[in-house]
Every structure is written in C-alpha cells, then in structure tokens.
Amino acid sequence: MALFFDQEWFDRQLAAHGKNRADLAARLGVNDAEIIDIWKDQREISPAEVAIIAEFLDQSRAEIASRCGVSTPSTSPLTAQHAQQGSTTEISPADRETALSNRLARIEGRLARLEQTLADIHAALVNRDSGQD
Length: 133
What we know:
The protein is mainly alpha-helical. The chain has seven helices and no strands. Helix 4 crosses helix 5 (61-68).
C-alpha cells in the first residue's frame, strides 16, 4: 500500500484513458481546489470515492485504495451509482480498526511535517530579526 497519494500513477492512468484531472473532478463531483488537495494528499479519499475512481479508471477498488494511501476500499461491493447517491457500506470491526490506525498514522505524518515547517519558519524569522538588530 502506498503511504501517500501516488500522483504520478494517477496522472499516467488518466493519460492512458485520455482523461485529465478535471475529468476526474467532474466525475467525483468536486471542484478544482478539492482535486488539487487530493493530488497533494491533503484530502482523504472516502470509500465511495474509491469506488467512483475505480470505475472511472477501470481499476479495482483495492488498487485505487492502495494508490490513494487508503487501507481498505470496503469489505462489500459498493457501486459508483450508490457512492454518488451517498450510500455507505458496512466494514468489519477489524477493517475499521486497520483503517483508523492507518488514517491516524497519516495524520501523525502530516502533523510532523507541519511542525517541521513551523520550526523552519520560526528559525528563518529569528535569523531575519537577529540580522536587523
């Protein structure tokens, strides 16, 4: 499983199908900013969206989930039509625990990157201010 959204793989798949990010955004019913956030791995992909993307790219839900950094697509079939209508599907407690653990790991990774970015900004500001004194 990819730990993060695999941008290059998705771009290749879209190109191979003669499609682009805007086409996928339209299919998912999201705006340009949301598709950009998906590509930057700043927006979670829901099981319903996994189903839609899988159908759109003619791939398995498991492959799409893996390339999105999602632990499991779902334990029961979820059609793109149901996904678009907002239907949900039950997942087993073990799969739910795995999904939550993986999501927490991704959140912790993002938090660590944010903390490092803030530390870098702080250091740059301190250096800038010390040069002005």
